[in-house]
Amino acid sequence: MHDIPSSTRWLGLAGLLPFLGTALGAWFAPPEWRGLALFALATYGAVILSFLGAVHWGLALNAPPAEIDAAAPRLGLGVLPALLAWAAMLLPPVPGLGLLAGGILLTAAGESLAARADLVPLPYLRLRWGLSLGAAACLLAGTAAAMQGG
Questions:
Q1: What is the Cα–Cα distance from 40 to 90, expressed in whole angstroms?
Q2: Distance (Å, rounded) from C-alpha 65 to C-alpha 32?
Q3: What is the DSSP letter of 92?
Q4: pLDDT digits (tens, 9 = 90+) for 2-45
Q5: Rounded to whole angstroms, what are the CA distances from 64 to 71, 123, 149?
Q6: CA-wise closest residue to 84 among 130, 113, 114, 42
Q7: What is the tens place of the pLDDT at every residue in 113-122?
Q8: CA geometry: angle 83, 86, 88, nearest 5 deg
Q9: Could you write out the DSSP letters of every residue in 14-68?
């Protein structure tokens, strides 16, 4: 992680705070606030999942000519997370939060495949896996809270 600027690391970690706060709220907030905590968790998860897809549009649009064959898969990886996020927001909390967790992890897995072809920088990938695991854990904690009734 030494090749990642410290501001990138800190901003990435700060991005986990809404996940953590809303997941904790889903478990420990007064009952009348737990539904809002679950909704806030799902909404933030959907925004972040869409953001992760947008990274790949940026990579595709800025790709050197040698990477032209990767344009379609990159654009696909850019669109799929937003579609998953939208679908998750149409679902009740338990399947919706699970879909968001799975989408975040699947996006990181797709990025791992892209990194093998030198299409994603390795420092980004290392940071992404750590952040993805943290985000997915919070989304799954919210899923468990919703299953328990908070």
A1: 14
A2: 55
A3: -
A4: 588 889 999 999 999 999 999 999 999 999 999 999 999 999 99
A5: 10, 19, 51
A6: 42
A7: 989 988 888 9
A8: 110
A9: HTTHHHHHHHHHHHHS-HHHHHHHHHHHHHHHHHHHHHHHHHHHHHHHT--GGGG
What's the Cα-to-Cα distance from 135 to each of 31, 41, 142, 143, rounded to whole Å? 23, 10, 11, 12
Distance CA 96, CA 100 (A): 6
Domain boundaries, the chain: 6-148
Angle of helix 71-89 versus helix 93-116 axis, rounded to 10:
170
Q: Long-range contact list for 111-120, CB < 8 A, 24+ apart?
A: 111/77, 114/70, 114/73, 114/74, 114/77, 117/70, 119/59, 119/67, 119/70, 119/74, 120/59
Angstrom distance (rounded) from CA 144 to CA 150: 8
Structure tokens belonging to residue 120: 């994603």
Q: Identify the residue whose tokens are 């000519």.
A: 65
What tokens does 141 get?
């904690």
Q: Is the pTM of this model over 0.85?
A: yes
